[in-house]
Amino acid sequence: MRLLKTALLAAALAMPIAQQASAATPDDLLVVAQNIDDIVAIDPAQAYEFSSGELVTNIYDRLVQYDAEDPTVLAAGLAAEWQADPQARTITFTLRDGAVFHSGNPVRAEDVVFSFARVIKLNLTPAFILAQLGWTPENVGEMVKADGNKVIVKYEGEFSPAFALNVLASRPASIVDEKTVMEHEEDGDMGNKWLNANSAGSGPFELQSYRPGEMVRFKANPDYFKGAPKVEGVIIRHVAEAATQQLLLQSGDVDMARNLTPDQISGIEGDAIKVETYPQAAVHFLSFNQKEESLQPEAVWDAARYLVDYKGMTDTFLKGQMEIHQAFWPEGFPGSYDETPYSYDPDKARQILTDAGIETPITVTLDVINSAPFTDMAQSLQATFAEAGINFDIIPGTGSQVITKYRERSHEAMLLYWGPDFMDPHSNAKAFAYNSDNSDDNYQATTTWRNAWAVPEDMNELTKAALAESDPEKRLDMYVELQKRVQEKSPIVIMFQAAYQVAMDQKVEGYVNGATSDFVYYRLVTKN
Fold it and tell me: Is the distance from CB of 89 to CB of 10 less than 8 angstroms?
């Protein structure tokens, strides 16, 4: 039987991808094959992974949010309107009438106050996003208050209301149902354990079931304030292998495959399956932990930039999925720096190391997510870096294993990717160009801290100045300057910007995949 199954699988994968397609999923249910093993948490106060962002976006609402109709426009969410007072650093939100949680409880101003305070008091990974507004466990009760159907939000810091609104449109600003959550509190956790297996939102979908590393199932919210979703539910099946995703799409067992390789994409033929491409904000990088003495010399960083075969990868196994980009803010967004001065030049890399007196070979462990295209990228880096005597020992792991190791600063080299937490260049500038306290006990959800890089003080100061700058054009120029500095001299080698390709049944319409995982929407999907 094993031999028969293997033969059938090989035969199926050898066929053009559309040849076997036959819609077998229910008309009112969207079934997705996707690698979701990066999920560590789904409580919006803790969720900080790419896949968990999709879950939070489809389950919860925020006061203001980027929505499915146009993910580039900040629109009304649970707030029908708002009024900003820059002098008082205050924004007053008026809640919309009639919004309810999945439990049937009405959305109250008190729920908003609770949700924001909960994030700050739990102080889990994404709490720093809201803490940028000057909120602390001690003062958040004074900074966010309910007044009837209004929520009065105060903030502290040298930034404009526009920045504050973008913070409040971010993932941890999702509004949870206080009454339901606190019914499940354990040992003062404010419902954290329960919310990592259940949901308490008001969004277009309710979490019906979640089995880590196996499946997520949503059911439509018929009372959603923007109208019920077009499908009755969504099932996301965890399928790590791209080849298995391909087979499931071919056989009609799923409607959508989220992680096919470029070779698989290029093999799609016929009318049964289509491919949609979505520009992404994620940048992919190689980084070196500065706790490792052999990786501390700047010459190692400089040489590394000439040991990446950027074009070789994007012309082959990354074709259609990534483009060369060497700065931390993605192309296509205001303030991006799009120059790509580095190319593969092992002779130059060797000379840089020789001139600096660096003794080779250097052996370095390289952590990588054990799925395409990351394993292919790691093998390419292993081959090209060896040309200059830097030998990578590749350590594959699940997404959650790799990310957890990164947060612990226990890696040596890391191949990973980063997307903005909210749509403002400061989001990535703080991650790549700021680290004012590099101590082990000062955890920061930034790639600078996670690589133990003590950022030069002048760069820290420029990052703070850009955030405070009131002139929009001057502010963007400052972020360009920061990108140039990180590109030229840092232990973080930014290589690519993602372009996301999704294969789906021709019957699927209305799927929206914005520039980040927080902008993935199923509400408008139909299967005609």
Answer: no
12: nearest Cα among 234, 246, 202: 246
Q: Rounded to whole angstroms, what are the CA distances from 220 to 54, 208, 223?
A: 15, 9, 9
Residues 6+ apart with CB under 8 A from 6: none
Query: Other C-beta atoms within 10 Å of 201: how many?
Result: 26
The helix/strand/coil state of 393 is strand
Judge whether 14 and 218 are in contact, CB under 8 Å.
Answer: no
Tally Cβ neighbours within 10 Å of residue 479: 28
Report the alpha-carbon angle 415-420-423, nearest 5. 160
Please indicate whether residue 7 or residue 55 has the higher confidence score (pLDDT). Answer: 55
27: buried, middle or exposed (CB in 10 Å: 19+, 13-18, 0-12)?
exposed
Q: Is-cis flag, bond preceding 361, omega within 30?
A: yes
Say if CB 474 and CB 465 are below 8 A apart: no
- State how far the alpha carbon of 357 is from the alpha carbons of 299, 351, 407, in Å: 9, 10, 32
Higher pLDDT, residue 338 or 266: 338
Q: pLDDT tens across 484-510, in order?
A: 999 999 999 999 999 889 999 999 999
In this structure, are residues 21 and 249 in contact, taking their beta carbons and an 8 Å threshold?
yes
Q: Which two tokens stand for residue 162?
A: 């526009």
Partnered with residue 238 across adjacent β-strands are 34
Q: Residues 314, 316, 318, CA angle at the centre, nearest 5°?
A: 50
pLDDT mean across residues, the chain? 93
pLDDT of 411 higher than 90: yes
User: Read out DSSP for 76-88?
Assistant: ESSEEEEEEETTT
- 3-state SS assignment for residue 126: coil
Question: Backbone phi, then psi, for 147, in 5-degree steps?
Answer: -140, 90
Rg of the chain taking only CA atoms, in angstroms: 23
Nearest to 415 by CA among 466, 354, 345, 366: 366
Structure tokens belonging to residue 38: 């990066």
List the beta bridge partners of residue 367. 395, 414
